[in-house]
Amino acid sequence: MEINVLYLGKIFCKRDNLVRCEDTGTMIQSPISAILIRHPQIGNILYDTGNSPDYKQDYPVPVQETYPVSEFISIEDALQQQGLTVNDIDMLILSHLHFDHAGGLGYFKGTKAIQNVVVSEDELKDAYFRVMTGQGGAYVKELFDIDGIRYVPYQEELRLAEDVLLFAQKSHTAGCTGMVLDTEQQGTMIVTSDTVYTEDNYKQELPPGGSINATTEEFYTNLERIKKMQVELDAKLVYGHDFEQIMQLSKCTLA
Ligand SMILES: [Zn+2]
């Protein structure tokens, strides 16, 4: 198994949105990323797809104001850097359906990958419920309700292979998919997605501020679970929006 963290540009957001703090005004840069896994049995797996190329038209004004896109790198270009096209992807996994993770799905229209989009069942249901009841927020229906898409939902856990396990987290969203990857050289890696945005959230046990995360209880319950897993598996963590980490990981191939 070979793993590449793909850097897909960045958005601005309030510092407090990522890590709760006194400073609710300062805007900081938050990286957008995806993870490419070249797997010997499954083929090419892509976890998340980044922003939409049409973010200026697609994203509602409040989303654009709260999270302005300051750099856009398309998933198509990032895959090209890896010598791949959208047609080479065998399976898509969406950590959750927010705009900065599901926004690149449109590139996969008509490919085999769009027939095989793994997402937690709770996430899929809640995303549709929200967009159909005027509570979309960071969910934008046009981005994930696309022509020809076939979702493959799972509950709780889904073992894709001996060395790839997906698990649904009830934090950040109704079903945010984390991933455990067992690699030969790096050992075990736990990909948290947005339940743990940054190292500060994890090490200092600081919950995010902002309006997306309704309660801090969910954050702490999930954090406890991740910390337990980390110890049991002696794992390295990969956070959802940690600038330094994503820049560093995106420079090399992990195996
Ligand atoms: Zn995100």
Ligands bound, unique: zinc ion
Q: Average pLDDT across residues? A: 95
Gross geometry: globular
CATH topology: Metallo-beta-lactamase, Chain A
Task: State the distance separating the first and last CA atoms.
Answer: 6 Å
Order of helices and strands: EHEEHHEHEHEHHEEEEEHHEHE
Count of DSSP-assigned helices: 10
Strand content: 25-35%
What structural class do helix, strand and pairing data support?
A: alpha/beta
CATH superfamily: Ribonuclease Z/Hydroxyacylglutathione hydrolase-like
Q: Name the helicity range.
A: 25-40%
What is the CATH top level name?
Alpha Beta
How many separate domains? 1
Number of strands: 13
Radius of gyration: 17 Å
Q: Can you give me a brief rundown of this structure?
A:
The chain has ten helices and 13 strands.
Structural notes for this entry:
The chain has a single domain, classed as Metallo-beta-lactamase, Chain A. 28% of the residues lie in helices and 30% in strands. Strands 1, 2, 3, 4, 5, 6, 7 and 13 form an eight-stranded mixed β-sheet that branches. The chain has a five-stranded mixed β-sheet with strand order 8-9-10-11-12, with helices on one face. It is globular. The protein starts with a strand and ends with a strand. The site of zinc ion (ZN) has 6 residues, from helix 5.
